[in-house]
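FAQ: What does the model actually see?

It sees only this:
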Amino acid sequence: MGLRTALRRIGPLGTALTLGQLGLVAHRHWHTIPAEHRTRLAHLLRKSRGKPSNLSRSERHELRKLVRALEVSRLVRSGAKSALGMRRRIGS
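And it is asked to produce this:
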């Protein structure tokens, strides 16, 4: 089942609840990272303005290191488990 079909089946309230749950998971994940890493990551992302060429070589290396520390795969797994749990609670 595709995402669009799944969202249509659970309806607008279910979609809103699922998105809220995913936002909560992302928020919790973000706060597992040390505050100084979050601050530095935000600074580098603002400085780059979406273009890695706006950063020096050492800043790009630091940015890669900080992004790896985010453990995006863990965030995705947590989000998927959370969304699946919401789907079961809603009854779809």
